[in-house]
Write a structure and sequence with these properties.
Layout lengths: L3 H11 L1 H12 L9 H13 L4 E4 L5 E5 L4 E8 L20 E2 L2 E3 L3 H20 L6 E8 L8 H8 L7 E4 L7 E2 L1 E2 L1 E10 L14 H17 L3 E2 L3 E2 L1 E10 L9 E10 L5 H11 L5 E5 L1 E5 L5 E5 L1 E2 L2 E2 L5 H14 L5 E2 L7 H7 L4 E3 L14 E3 H18 L8
Parallel strand pairs: 3-6, 3-7, 7-21, 8-20
Antiparallel strand pairs: 1-2, 2-6, 4-5, 5-22, 9-19, 10-14, 10-15, 10-18, 11-12, 13-14, 16-17
Helix pairs in contact: 1-10, 2-3, 2-4, 2-10, 4-10, 8-10
Length: 403
């Protein structure tokens, strides 16, 4: 009988233009974090048109399509919010044009990361056309608010929707490599409290800016001695903002604040990172604070979490990774690159917090994420749509590749 993986490849190629046009429709709809309503309605329509068994929008605004109703659960995730356009002069084409030409779909969000959802809509259509009836449930998730707070959407899905997958595929851009982790991150404020005095007699006061400056130089040194992991690389810390306050510009500053961007490698935790900063400011009138996020979704629901995004990785030998390797090699006749992301994804919640095995496979090159002239190869979309469908068969325990 004909190889089912061969059929998947044929169908993904057959729907090449369909996938590209679906992505074009999504890109034309501006969809900043907390403002995704219109693009979510379009994605829901695309899932329904593709023949998904069920499609709904949850309380936070995530679009969730379902195929199957088996005992084990696979989720395929892609966030639908994008960053803003930035300086339009840096673009050589309309960032909201969604133009399909010369083998690419052009525009903001094509790589980061509406290309993944456009591809998984096609995967769903392929599975339905092949009569997929294995004992699994597949949830295809167009998630929200990731650019503002990665993982928040999955905190809601797991805790409020009560959907807890056995494996998650993130469709964030991987350049068609298989990714198995990335560094974590956290946002920290360090507050410094001084005493104001007239600027003509600074010795009467205690300048909070000087305290912050001394601490800032120690933070720079801290970065050089942070931990290193053979796979994930080195932890890092940088100061991305310093603000200060005083009664007037003729007075000693009685307040200053540093904003720290902390990237966490394997073995580093929220507690260890906070302790490092507390050691730096010991003896100063200072306070270290891990920030919180709370915003109102487009649905009107206010939801939030602490801005601590845990480090995560899977071993390359893990079944979830190896199923991805097998799907790739069987479909495309060559070995994939197995690697990691530089940036952070919703994997911080699915794997980092909830310990759900998570891998990444997505169309597009992450170097174009948040950059001008963002575009994704249509061929990447074709290969991604084949990969997600093939992975579903392997996840379902399809030991052979014959129907």
């Amino acid at each position: 009988m004909e190889n089912v993986f061969g059929k998947i490849n044929e169908l993904s190629e057959k729907y090449r233009d369909y996938t590209a046009e679906n992505l074009s429709k999504l890109v034309k709809i501006k969809s900043l974090s907390t403002k995704e309503k219109d693009v979510q309605i379009e994605l829901k329509h695309q899932m329904e048109e593709a023949g998904f068994d069920d499609v709904f929008i949850d309380g936070l605004g995530n679009v969730i399509g379902r195929i199957g109703e088996g005992s084990r659960v696979l989720a395929i995730d892609g966030h639908m919010d994008t960053v803003d356009i930035g300086n339009i002069d840096n673009w050589s084409f309309n960032p909201l044009g969604g133009e399909v030409k010369e083998g690419f779909v052009h525009g903001r969000g094509t790589v980061d990361q509406e290309g993944g959802p456009a591809a998984f809509v096609t995967s769903g259509r392929i599975l339905k056309e092949l009569g997929f009836d294995k004992d699994i449930t597949i949830y295809f998730v167009g998630s929200v608010m990731e650019e503002d707070c990665d993982g928040l959407c999955w905190k809601y899905i797991i805790e409020e929707d009560k959907i807890r997958p056995d494996v998650v595929i993130s469709t964030e851009p991987t350049n068609l490599n298989i990714y198995r982790g990335h560094r974590g991150r956290m946002e920290i404020h360090v507050h410094f409290y001084g005493v104001s005095s007239h600027g003509s007699a600074p010795e009467r006061g205690k300048n909070a800016i000087y305290m912050a400056s001394r601490a800032a130089l120690e933070v720079e040194k801290l970065n050089d001695r942070l931990a290193y992991d053979d796979f994930l690389g080195k932890g890092s810390v940088t100061i991305s903002e310093i603000i200060s306050g005083s009664p007037s510009l003729c007075a000693v500053a009685d307040y200053a604040r540093l904003h720290l961007d902390r990237r966490l490698t394997w073995g580093e935790t929220k507690e260890s990172a906070v302790k490092e900063i507390e050691e730096i400011v010991k003896g100063m009138n200072a306070r270290v604070e891990v920030l919180d996020y709370s915003e109102r979704a487009y649905t009107g629901l206010e939801y939030g979490m602490e801005k601590y995004y845990p480090t995560w990785k899977l071993e390359e030998s893990h079944e979830a990774v190896q199923d991805g390797v097998k799907a790739y090699t069987t479909l495309f006749g060559r070995e994939p690159v197995v690697d990691k992301w530089t940036f952070s994804t919703n994997g911080i919640m699915t794997c980092g917090t909830y310990k759900i095995p998570t891998i990444g496979f997505g169309p597009g090159n992450e170097v174009l994420a948040h950059a001008p002239d963002e575009k994704v190869p249509v061929n990447d979309l074709v290969m991604a749509s084949a990969f997600y469908a093939a992975y579903a068969y392997l996840f379902a325990g399809e030991e052979t590749i014959e129907e």
